Amino acid sequence: MTRLYLIMLFAAVILASCSSNEKPMSKEEQFVEDLLEKMTLAEKVGQLNQYTSRWEMTGPAPKDNAGAQDLSEQLKSGMVGSMLNVIGAEATRNAQKTVVENTRLGIPLIFGYDVMSMAYPLHQIHGN
């Protein structure tokens, strides 16, 4: 009889540990989950791409604006998730509008600016 009680206790512990105590998803979490389910693998990989603008290059600039058409097509196809060094509200708005209005899911870009934190040596800043 003791053996039966031990088996029942063991089964109860196993069943209790299998119960789901997950909280329901928030609206934001559900939105993200739904969006990820809609995305193709190519779109997910595209969101990982970060391009720099032609206005403020931090490396060698392409000659004769080479690649500008390719960048435009990449933006329109959703293969860019973020951009660096886009200067000005108009340029930012135009890039964002291109992506939101032309891509399948309308996922907006993330913008950043590549700034060197040590552009000025500390002794020049502090006057030493």
TrEMBL record:
<dbReference type="InterPro" id="IPR017853">
    <property type="entry name" value="GH"/>
</dbReference>
<feature type="signal peptide">
    <location>
        <begin position="1"/>
        <end position="22"/>
    </location>
</feature>
<keyword id="KW-0732">Signal</keyword>
<keyword id="KW-0378">Hydrolase</keyword>
<dbReference type="InterPro" id="IPR036962">
    <property type="entry name" value="Glyco_hydro_3_N_sf"/>
</dbReference>
<protein>
    <recommendedName>
        <fullName>Beta-glucosidase</fullName>
    </recommendedName>
</protein>
